[in-house]
TrEMBL record:
<keyword id="KW-0966">Cell projection</keyword>
<keyword id="KW-0378">Hydrolase</keyword>
<keyword id="KW-1003">Cell membrane</keyword>
<dbReference type="InterPro" id="IPR006683">
    <property type="entry name" value="Thioestr_dom"/>
</dbReference>
<comment type="similarity">
    <text>Belongs to the THEM4/THEM5 thioesterase family.</text>
</comment>
<keyword id="KW-0809">Transit peptide</keyword>
<protein>
    <recommendedName>
        <fullName>Acyl-coenzyme A thioesterase THEM4</fullName>
        <ecNumber>3.1.2.2</ecNumber>
    </recommendedName>
</protein>
<keyword id="KW-0963">Cytoplasm</keyword>
<feature type="domain" description="Thioesterase">
    <location>
        <begin position="58"/>
        <end position="139"/>
    </location>
</feature>
<dbReference type="InterPro" id="IPR029069">
    <property type="entry name" value="HotDog_dom_sf"/>
</dbReference>
<keyword id="KW-0443">Lipid metabolism</keyword>
<dbReference type="InterPro" id="IPR052365">
    <property type="entry name" value="THEM4/THEM5_acyl-CoA_thioest"/>
</dbReference>
<dbReference type="GO" id="GO:0016020">
    <property type="term" value="C:membrane"/>
</dbReference>
<dbReference type="GO" id="GO:0005737">
    <property type="term" value="C:cytoplasm"/>
</dbReference>
<keyword id="KW-0276">Fatty acid metabolism</keyword>
<keyword id="KW-0472">Membrane</keyword>
<dbReference type="GO" id="GO:0016790">
    <property type="term" value="F:thiolester hydrolase activity"/>
</dbReference>
């Protein structure tokens, strides 16, 4: 039976599905899944309890940056295809890589809590898409990120 395609990352073709953060074919990765929620994108994940950042009860900052990065990459692809007025398919989905990523760590992110990432499309300018992402745990915005994503030329 064919897999149910729903999340942005499910539309990445196999060759582009090995990312540690979002590749559905990376069995050791986080395999995050991002979706539209109105004009925003959303991703929810429960990081394993060994992703600790120094102290046992907080999440490692590098993981936080990875989550923001990969959610922004998926949101950029979904936003671009929406701008083009096309449907997401494995044939049409554009691929984006990170050119620049900034993260402000605002509060410790508790281990064990569900993390919600909420993405906003800030700008689409040709191949360049800028995404803002809030990382929220237990109702607190623990980190804010902004990513400049560039569309891979072969997928233009
Ligand atoms: C090939 C990789 C495949 C990945 C598949 C992903 C699948 C999904 C997985 C998701 C993975 C999750 C995410 C990950 O982890 S992705 C992994 C981490 N990221 C990378 O490894 C990317 C490495 N960098 C590159 O490959 C190239 O530099 C890219 C492709 C980004 C651009 O090189 P390219 O030759 O294509 O384009 P260009 O140089 O003509 O620039 C074009 C425009 O962009 C502007 N600009 C460029 N850089 C910057 C900057 N730092 N700040 C501000 N602006 C910048 C530039 O001024 C120009 O603007 P304009 O003059 O047009 O106005």
């Amino acid at each position: 039976m064919e897999d149910k395609l729903e999340a942005f990352q499910d539309f990445y073709p196999d060759d582009y599905s090995h990312c540690y953060g979002c590749g559905r074919l990376n069995e050791h990765g986080m395999q995050i899944k991002s979706y539209w929620d109105g004009e925003e994108s959303v991703c929810r994940i429960h990081p394993r309890d060994y992703y600790t950042g120094g102290m046992k009860h907080i999440v490692y900052g590098g993981l936080i940056a990875s989550l923001i990065d990969c959610h922004a990459a998926g949101t950029a692809a979904a936003a671009k295809i929406k701008e083009l007025g096309q449907e997401m398919t494995r044939e049409t989905m554009p691929r984006f890589v990170t050119a620049n990523l900034n993260v402000n760590f605002k509060a410790p992110t508790p281990i064990g809590a569900e993390i919600e990432l909420r993405g906003k499309v800030l700008e689409i300018k040709g191949r360049k898409v800028t995404i803002g992402v809030d990382l929220i745990a237990e109702g607190v915005v623990c980190a804010e990120g902004q990513a400049l994503m560039i569309q891979v030329k072969e997928t233009l």
